[in-house]
Design goal:
heterodimer, A: eight-stranded mixed β-sheet, 12 strands, 34% helix, 23% strand, globular, B: alpha/beta, eight-stranded mixed β-sheet
Chain lengths: 318, 320
C-alpha cells in the first residue's frame, strides 16, 4: 500500500546554506496491508526524517512516496487532508505533544473540529469511547484530565486513540515506547500487535533491535541515511550479512547472553567518516574487502536470498 | 566494605507535604563492586544517587547514616561534604552531555575544576592524557568546545573527568541511556575497565535497563516506589528473582529472538503509588499478584540467602 521509491532528503546546512547534508539517500522499500515494518538505526541515521517524509511534514528532495497508487508529494489542500485521514503518526515524547494549559482530551476535540465537524454529540462520544477502548483506556480515567494527571503510558495510548479516530490505514510509530517504563512499554507494544491484526500497517521506528524483532515481520536497517540491509526479520536476526548489522546484533544487551570479550569501538571522529566516497560504512567497517572496492562507489542493494537484501561489496561478491 | 548505607531516608519538601522518595534504604557495597540500581522512573534511584553526594533542598535528610571506607560520610552537611566530593565520591550526572560548560574549552574547564579542589592542573595533565587514551579520545579535545564533540564523546569526556582524582565511589546515573547500542556497549565496558584499573573502587550504576546491568554489574539492587525491593548478585536477580516486582519486571522484557506471535509478553498492570502520601504496608501491594493480608504491614529488607536481600513477606517463609 505504501511504497518508497528512491527517496532522498537533502538539507542545506552551514552559513547561508552552503553545505549539503544528505539525511536520507535513495531509500526504497514497501509496506503492505497489515504489515509491520521496523526501521532500525542509530541516532542521525535518518529514520525519523523518513517518518516525517511519509507523513508529508517535510518535502522530499527526490524520489517518490506512493500511497495506494497516488504520489503523496503532489498532494495539496483537500487531497492532503484526505491523506492525513488515512496516514497518521505518533511520536517519541508523549509529554510534549500536549499543551499543559489545556485538558489532554483536547487532542481528540481538535480531530472532531477538523475532520468531523458535522457529527452529533452522541455519535462522537461513542466513537471516542470505542477508540479509547481499542487502546485499553477507560474513558473516565483519561477524559477531562490535564496532561500532568496522566502517566506517560496513558498519554501515549491517548495519542494512538487519537489516530484511531480517523479511519487510518497506516501508522508511523516513531520511537513511541522509548520514553516509557519497562512495565508499561510492553502493553503499548502489544497494542500495536492487536492493531496490526485489525489490518493496520505500521512503520515501527526504533533503535532497539529486540523490540523490532518482537513486533515486526520485516526490518530495514539504516546507516547514515542509506539502507544497508533489509528483509524478513527472521532472516535478518538469525543470519545478518552486513557487518554493521552484525555489530548491532553483538552490542544489543541481552538477558540470555553476556557480551563477548571483543572490544567495542567507539564512534569515529567526523573527519574520517567524511573522507569516504564509497560505502557509507567503510570508515568503520571491521572487514572491508581487500581489493578496495569498498572505497569506490556505493554498493547496490542486492537480493542475496529470497526476501533478504544487502548493500555490501563483500556479501555481494560471495 | 567500601560503602555502608544504613536506614537512609530522604524526602522532598513540597508545599503539599513531604514526598517520600527514599525510605529506609540499607545496603552495603563491597570493594570493586559494580552495583546496578534499577527501577522505573520515579522510584527514587536518582534520589539515592544524588543524596550520597549532594543533598540540597528541596531534598531533606530525614534519617540514616552512610559510611565510606570506614569513615562517616556527612551527607546531611553540605559544607562538610566538600572535601569528599570529587576526591572520594564522584558522580556522572544524568545529563552528562550538558554537564560540560559550553563557554569554556574543555581543557580550561578541567583546569578550573581542579584548581577549585586545590589540585594542580599541570601535575594532573600527564594522567589526564593517559586516561584520554584509554577512553579513545584524542588529546586535541582539550582545546575544543563541548559543542564540537558528539554525544558519545562528551559522555566519555565526563567519565574521564569524574574519575580523574580516583574517587572511592562513583555514581553513574543513566550514563548509557541516551546512547546508541554500539556506543552504549563501548561506554559501559570502559566504565568497567576503569574499575578493573582501580581508578574507582566501586560503582553504583543507575539505569532503568536491566539488560545492560546483566552485562556489566556484579550485583543488582531493584527499587520500587522509594523502597528497596531486592538486592542480589546479578545472576540470581536475572535467573531467580524472588520479589514479585523483579519477577514481573524481568519477564516483561522482550528478548532478542522473541516474537509476539510466538510468546506474548505481559506488562505489569496498574501504576506506582504517589509518594506524597504512600499507602501503608508494602508499596507494591496494589499491583502484586500474590499479595495477602500480611502485606498491610511493611516488609523488612531481609537477607534470605547469603548476599540475597529481599523485602517480601512471601519470601521469608514460615519462620518470619
Amino acid at each position: 500500500m505504501l511504497e518508497l521509491d528512491g527517496v532522498s532528503k537533502v538539507y542545506r546546512v552551514g552559513t547561508f546554506g552552503g553545505k549539503e547534508l544528505r539525511a536520507v539517500s535513495n531509500v526504497s522499500f514497501r509496506v503492505g496491508d497489515g504489515e509491520v515494518v521496523s526501521l532500525i538505526g542509530e541516532s542521525g541515521s535518518g529514520k525519523s526524517t523518513l517518518g516525517k517524509l511519509i507523513l508529508c511534514l517535510i518535502s522530499t528532495s527526490s524520489g517518490r512516496i506512493v500511497f495506494n497508487g497516488a504520489d503523496v508529494s503532489t498532494l495539496k489542500g483537500g487531497a492532503l487532508k484526505e491523506y492525513r485521514r488515512k496516514v497518521q503518526g505518533v511520536f517519541q515524547d508523549p509529554f510534549s505533544c500536549y499543551n499543559p494549559i489545556f485538558k489532554a482530551d483536547r487532542v481528540l476535540k481538535i480531530i472532531r473540529h477538523e475532520f468531523f465537524p458535522g457529527t452529533r454529540d452522541a455519535d462522537w462520544n461513542n466513537k471516542v469511547n470505542s477508540s479509547l477502548e481499542a487502546v485499553g483506556l477507560k474513558p473516565e480515567h483519561v477524559l477531562d484530565k490535564f496532561p500532568h494527571q496522566l502517566s506517560g503510558g496513558q498519554l501515549q495510548r491517548l495519542l494512538i486513540a487519537r489516530a484511531l479516530l480517523l479511519d487510518i490505514r497506516f501508522l508511523v510509530a516513531d520511537e513511541i515506547i522509548s520514553m516509557l517504563d519497562a512495565s508499561t512499554r510492553i502493553d503499548v507494544l502489544n497494542l500495536l500487535a492487536d492493531l496490526k491484526s485489525r489490518g493496520l500497517a505500521i512503520l515501527f521506528i526504533t533503535h532497539d533491535l529486540s523490540l523490532g524483532y518482537y513486533i515486526s515481520e520485516k526490518s530495514v536497517i539504516l546507516y547514515r541515511g542509506c539502507v544497508v540491509e533489509m528483509g524478513s526479520s527472521e532472516r535478518l536476526y538469525h543470519h545478518p550479512l552486513h557487518p554493521y548489522t552484525r555489530v548491532l546484533m553483538a552490542s544489543v544487551p541481552r538477558l540470555d547472553r553476556k557480551w563477548g570479550a571483543d572490544h567495542a569501538a567507539a564512534e569515529l571522529p567526523e573527519e574520517r567518516a567524511a573522507l569516504s566516497a564509497g560505502c557509507v560504512y567503510f570508515p568503520r567497517c571491521p572487514v572491508p574487502t581487500g581489493d578496495g572496492s569498498c572505497a569506490q562507489g556505493t554498493p547496490a542493494l542486492l537480493e542475496v536470498e529470497p526476501d533478504h537484501w544487502v548493500a555490501c561489496c563483500k556479501a555481494n561478491q560471495t | 566494605m567500601s560503602l555502608r548505607v544504613e536506614n537512609l531516608s530522604v524526602y522532598y519538601q513540597t508545599l503539599r507535604g513531604d514526598v517520600r522518595a527514599l525510605e529506609g534504604a540499607s545496603f552495603t557495597l563491597a570493594d570493586g563492586e559494580v552495583m546496578g540500581l534499577a527501577g522505573e522512573s520515579g522510584c527514587g534511584k536518582t534520589t539515592l544517587g544524588n543524596s550520597l553526594i549532594r543533598l540540597v533542598p528541596p531534598m531533606r535528610f530525614v534519617a540514616g547514616s552512610v559510611q565510606l571506607d570506614g569513615r562517616e560520610l556527612p551527607i546531611q552537611d553540605t559544607e562538610r561534604m566538600n572535601p569528599f566530593r570529587f576526591k572520594r565520591v564522584s558522580i556522572i550526572p544524568q545529563c552528562a552531555m550538558c554537564a560540560l560548560n559550553p563557554t569554556r574549552k574543555i581543557g580550561k574547564m578541567i583546569s578550573e575544576l581542579l584548581e577549585s579542589r586545590k589540585v594542580s592542573f599541570k601535575e594532573a595533565l600527564p594522567e589526564l592524557k593517559r586516561r584520554l587514551d584509554l577512553a579513545e579520545l584524542s588529546h586535541d579535545v582539550l582545546n575544543r568546545y563541548p559543542i564540537e564533540l558528539s554525544g558519545g564523546m562528551k559522555q566519555r569526556m565526563v567519565m574521564v573527568l569524574s574519575t580523574l582524582l580516583n574517587p572511592s565511589l562513583l555514581i553513574a546515573d543513566e550514563v548509557t541511556s541516551a546512547l546508541d547500542v554500539s556506543t552504549q556497549k563501548a561506554v559501559a565496558q570502559m566504565l568497567v575497565g576503569f574499575r578493573d584499573r582501580e581508578f574507582v573502587k566501586s560503582i553504583i550504576f543507575i539505569t532503568h535497563d536491566m539488560s545492560i546491568l546483566y552485562q556489566i554489574a556484579d550485583s543488582i539492587l531493584v527499587m520500587y516506589a522509594g523502597k528497596l525491593a531486592e538486592k542480589a548478585p546479578t545472576d540470581a536477580i536475572i535467573h531467580a528473582p524472588r520479589h514479585p516486582y523483579s519477577r514481573l519486571l524481568i519477564s516483561s522484557l522482550p528478548k532478542v529472538g522473541a516474537k509476539y506471535s510466538e510468546k506474548r509478553l505481559a506488562g505489569i498492570p496498574g501504576n506506582p503509588p504517589l509518594l506524597l502520601d504512600p499507602p501503608a504496608g508494602c508499596r507494591f501491594r496494589e499491583r502484586c499478584p500474590v499479595a495477602f493480608e500480611r502485606c498491610l504491614e511493611a516488609p523488612p529488607f531481609r537477607e534470605v540467602e547469603p548476599g540475597h536481600f529481599v523485602a517480601c513477606w512471601k519470601e521469608f517463609g514460615t519462620h518470619a
